[in-house]
């Protein structure tokens, strides 16, 4: 019976596997968070993933940080002074803080970290956020002076961003480029393990400097669960205590579970459709206005987002500093048809609508918009782009004249919490692809001047006035169809406290605690 | 036999080299720029250029290919563009979970497939056959993600008997391996039945019965053994296919295997990882084909190797 050999030889590794993966008993205060994406990098200066940076806040801290409501508060700095000309920032640093490896945190550490990102030979991805730094000087161990190349009034916001973290200089020296695999910071938790595609784990750091905020849980495990429905399932089985995002369709089911809270909160993720302002018919402002009138945003929110979205009131979401709230573009198909006729398109026209994402919600959204535009005679063919296609067809187009993009559905979250980052990369005249994300190829000299001046001034009222002017001008020019601001929808076990989703979809878990 | 194996192993080399060339050209033809993707939407053009240089993607294509082959000949598959870890480590971490899941699914689906197939063939066109073949057709047609979701809903959420995601204990293997193996078991059952029905009508089976052998010996020794050849071929094919990691099952069960790694790599245009994985898959297929060929000889000693 030789065929039976087959079974024996196959069974052996299986049995061994069974032994190797013996079950481990769960300790009392272990939190599991189900996250939707695999981690790409644990070096905060070299990742664009909001999720990777959010998790990094467990072991890393910056000079400043955002709290749950996106307000800036000092962390490793205790305060700062700005010179009259807005060029020199002097920071007072917190004393007595130690990194996880025992190295002291001081002005030298700040210098090492910022010089690392500024060194172009390191080719770190977030260079752009720090490029206006000219030099960093150590005044004394607890004082550091940073000089900028040009005034940049959103500088503190950039430092509060979860990429501007303080890494132990000793660890940087020891691991070099491998620092990615050995995060060493000053935070509440120390790094335990990173299994690619599987999980990232951290455990409580007893030597944390802020004795009032010593971690109340022993470990936090961030488990990768890609599938939307499975993420909802692990909440119901109790295998995870927190997950974000949950699919809109699942929210109603999870709400019925008496062990879980479903938490929906306004975000700063603005969704819009950029129209290529360089080409016909979108070079005509009347056409662009007509497009804004043609779409029923409330119906879009209800149908596509299951009500978890708010109609855009302006182009910068409310929680972003210097956002200007404006009246939503009303839904008026009759007016849209009139404007199209005035612009010379009484029969409408044909064009294409691309989505920057190919997930289910985005596909539904562009199909919905396709139907709406059909009502005013505009026939659009829709296509949801895969990441590589998006880069090739939209982001990396060298010559604006070659751009095939017509209408482009995309979202943006101004992760520094300040209007500059919500406007400049998307609407400034020098931000056309491939430099940045001005996919509408929009250019208005008044807006460019306002944005530049706002960075130069240190006066808040003046800054507010300039940003207001810029936003109102853009709103009237309508380079985009202003759609909505989505809610973040998370599920949290009733046993878990203090784990929140921030408006930019980052996590806030400084005060996390778990009931027995 | 030994010289046959050596010949087969040497014969693998040109195939693998060809795979290298084709895969290299193919991944570089994919639309999209890995440097731009790695830099993300918040980076400016200069940063992208720097990253491209850092990743060595600014060199002309033939030169890149030269580097790749040179490193490959030294056993170095390169470094992942996305995570900056060596490709070998990336794949190594994902290989075992996929392998063990494949083995468990294969073991039970082969056992079930063979038994169901034989039972259906012996009682063909009677009620056990009808019942099992209905089950088998359902098994082939039922989409794995739906099966996975239903199993999670019943056994993890409602009953709470089994865990849903992860790969840390033996219980974790039950639901994913059932999901993954269902279709294979169904295919095996249908193949075994078809092959068995053919063999059981042969003259030598009638002879065996005529010389007074018990029905058990006729079925298990004479018929089954001869019916196994096409089944083993199918098994090899399915095994190679499963070793690639089932993207659907891995996604549904949050399984840290190679299927999800491949998806991540393609999304990020992580050339070295894609190349490494495709090379590994090709290697596995060739290897399994060889094992299947050897198994033929064990099942049917009249087959000779030269």
Explain what you see.
By secondary structure, chain A is an alpha+beta fold. In chain A, 31% of the residues lie in helices and 23% in strands. Chain A has 15 helices and 21 strands. In chain A, the strands form five sheets. In chain A, strands 1, 8, 9, 10, 11, 12, 13, 14, 15, 16 and 17 form an eleven-stranded mixed sheet that branches. In chain A, strands 4-5-7-6 form a four-stranded antiparallel sheet, covered by helices on one side. In chain A, helix 9 packs antiparallel against helix 11, helix 13 (419-427) runs antiparallel to helix 14 and helix 14 (445-456) packs antiparallel against helix 15. Chain A is globular. Chain A starts with a helix and ends with a strand. The model of chain A is unreliable at 1-27 (pLDDT under 50). With 306 residues, chain B is mostly helical. Chain B contains 13 helices and no strands. The longest helix of chain B has 36 residues, at 87-122. The chains are: A alpha+beta (516), B mainly alpha (306). Chains A and B meet through helix 1, helix 6 and helix 12 of A and helix 2, helix 3, helix 5, helix 7 and helix 8 of B.
